[in-house]
């Protein structure tokens, strides 16, 4: 079965609440290809997607479906081959490097599988790095919020430790705290629970859901885990670089069934 003839196991549909909120991020006819001529590989194919402000969206799909590529382009970390991406109404495909860097620094948080912690900084310094990069110190309220966030992630006793003194799960929690500490409008998370035990995973997912629900932050989470996706209020499924389903809150069982159908059809 070729990508051009792939029939989604569940008819693609638009999430019912997709037009009820202002968009925090949008793509229009977004495509990404690698290579040239007969060696061309299409990672994304004319993806049009709208992420609403304050939403918690899970992006799922089989390996090679384009989900991480989509997130990286939406976050301004990779260039599209064609199409446009807008963040908060700003077309980032038209920004120069300096403007794009400022936008990412002040309005976007990142949690990636590789953690990207600075090895020479301790936990406190890594978490506060977004303030340092923006050339300012957190005020009293921001410091109190940081300490509450650290406590909720079980990192209080580790504030003076450096990354090499932490487990993989602890490093991931530091990365999550760093992404949330400034309360950015939009947080991109790539498999944020991939290195965590079950209890810590639930705590982290609850924290992301609360950031969306209580603080109006938008979360876009790439995950392969149906349990993690069940915490989201919207789930977008990709296959062969296309959106093939878009639905509201679903149980882990429902998500598992659809993922299995997509894997079989891939």
TrEMBL record:
SMART domains: AAA. PROSITE patterns: ABC_TRANSPORTER_1, ABC_TRANSPORTER_2. Residues 25-265 form the ABC transporter domain. The keyword Transport applies. GO terms for molecular function: ATP binding; ATP hydrolysis activity; transmembrane transporter activity. One of its GO terms (cellular component) is membrane protein complex. Pfam families: ABC_tran. Gene3D superfamilies: P-loop containing nucleotide triphosphate hydrolases. It comes from the Bacteria. Keywords: ATP-binding, Nucleotide-binding, Transport. PANTHER family: ABC TRANSPORTER RELATED, IMPORT ATP-BINDING PROTEIN. This is Peptide ABC transporter ATP-binding protein. It comes from Subtercola boreus.
